[in-house]
Amino acid sequence: MAKQINEILVEQGKITPEQNKQALLYAKQNNVPIAEAILRSGFANEEQVTIALSKHFAIPYASKENGILVPEREQNLQDIVNEKFARENMVVPLFMEDDSLAVAVLDPTNLFLIENLKMMSGKQIQPFITSKSQLLSVIDSFYSNKNLLEEVLNETIAAAPADAAATAESDEEIEVTGVLDLDRMSPNSSQYVKQVNAILRQAISERTSDIHLEMFDERVSLRFRIDGSLYERTAPAKDAVNAIISRIKILSKLDIAEKRLPQDGSFTIRYQNRSIEVRVSVCPAVYGEKLVLRILDKGSGEMNIEKLGFEPDQQKAFLEAAHLPHGLIFLTGPTGSGKSTTLNAVLTSIRTSELNFMTLEDPVEYKLAGISQVQVKPAIGLTFAAGLRSFLRQDPDVILVGEVRDNETAEACLKAALTGHLVLSTLHTNDALGAVPRLIDMGMEPFLLASSLALVAAQRLIRILCPYCKVPHIPDSATLDRIIREGHLNPRDANSWTFFKSVGCPRCFGTGFSGRRAIYEVYRTTEEMRNIIYKTQDLIALRKAAVASGALNLRANGWRKVIRGLTTVDEILSITTADE
């Protein structure tokens, strides 16, 4: 008899026996499968559960990492399994071999789906099991051959409506719930509604984080921020921009008549079986309003700490600090460097029902099961400092403060750490150790900071090379010497290193890169570092003490990504400096 999924996960050490009991109870109380109960409880991630399902059903596991979840484009598989069928049934064809068709599915026990695929292909079906997030990602890339944005924006607009705002407001696609469903684009929609939908769909398919639409004297600019860089895209006509912005304002419940002041809002869209939040910022400029949309695809957020980019020693140090009963942990980096993702992944890793976890954020980007999360609202007096004071009356064990912005918040964090709580937060500094003088400038007493600071870390995001078009590259001897020196690497290992450079292909939309990963510097506070913080606060001496502890800085971490063929030399040089 095949072992159950929860038993397999316990055997593999992915969940504890206590978590297994809690998951079984949750499954019974909520009438859900045990795999779903484990996922909802956050005891294991999607990949771990899928691998356990693979063992349970004795069906091979397919993922991008093991190279199986890569459809063969030369075999015209999209003609056998079209995009509509693939999305509705959560299946993607992988390859054909003799009289069999290999497919990746979520539920290999769905015999009705297997029979349908047999009739469609005329072949025997070889199923592979995969996770939902990976399957959706592969469907997006495999079927994204048409540029919907260019197609819609190049259509001729017969006549602009007299009142563009009224046209946008009357469109039937704005649901009562406030959720815009991009999967059901009405053929009767106005041209401007189609253009907005096309921009959103194209941006999501290209993994865009921000959309920029702005007017200049002679032209319109539409740019997508992909993996941290802005790329120009086909822009709408100049006389359509005001109508497009009005449409977005209505979706975001903003004032369409107000064009003199900046406005912020948000709306939610439903696309390809997932819910995506869009944050809207409209700002008046010289030639008209500038629109920026931030796309927050919660389904793409990586909550697995093992996949964030930590080196093994760094991950161990961070988790050891996160398991301490009290103290301060600070993560530094610029806006958009992934600090929230890292801290939420750490919380997910250490979460247990035996402790009370609370977060204070602005805004709450990831909703975490089993953790009380609070959104700050400065307009009504709910600031970071005020919320933190309230938290201390809620019997917390672990507190996450989204950001330390002022003296009051810094003092509240220190007080919480000194009274037996573990506090995690972020700062905007150039490197990890720069957090020390910044916190002292904010009013923290050096002797109190020295005794309570458990760990400081910094991170940046680097672009990862597209696996489909990257080509081998041999760096010159000067670059190789630099990598060895700055990376603290052994030159005798150089024969095992692999270097690549970016090229660009349709799968990465010509960028040469696909996705981003973090690089870190992580410093556990040693006794020598505590003495320096307490006595002199000398940043140079602090850096020497940190290096003496054997920890890697940002650039050394980055070079390790380069020699593994994950990114390029130029990418690391553009993101880091040698003295970090």
What report would you give on this structure?
The protein is of the alpha/beta class and about 575 residues long. It has 22 helices and 19 strands. It has a 7-stranded mixed β-sheet, with helices on one face. A 7-stranded mixed β-sheet has the order 13-12-14-15-11-16-19, with helices on both faces. Strand 6 (about 220-225) and strand 7 (about 230-235) form a beta hairpin. Helix 1 (about 5-10) crosses helix 4 (about 45-55), helix 14 runs parallel beside helix 15 and helix 17 packs antiparallel against helix 19 (about 525-535).
List keywords for this structure.
22 helices; alpha/beta; single chain; 580 residues; 37% helix; 22% strand; 7-stranded mixed β-sheet; 19 strands
* Order of strands in the sheet with most strands: 4-8-9-10-5-6-7
In DSSP terms (H or I, runs of 4 or more residues), the helix count works out at 22
- Radius of gyration from CA coordinates: 26 Å
DSSP summary, beta strand count: 19
* Helix/sheet category: alpha/beta
State the end-to-end distance: 56 Å
Overall mean pLDDT: 85
Strand content: 15-25%
Largest sheet: 7 strands, mixed
* Helical coverage, percent range: 25-40%
Tell me the overall shape.
Answer: globular
The stretches of 5 or more residues where confidence is low (pLDDT under 50) are: 156-177
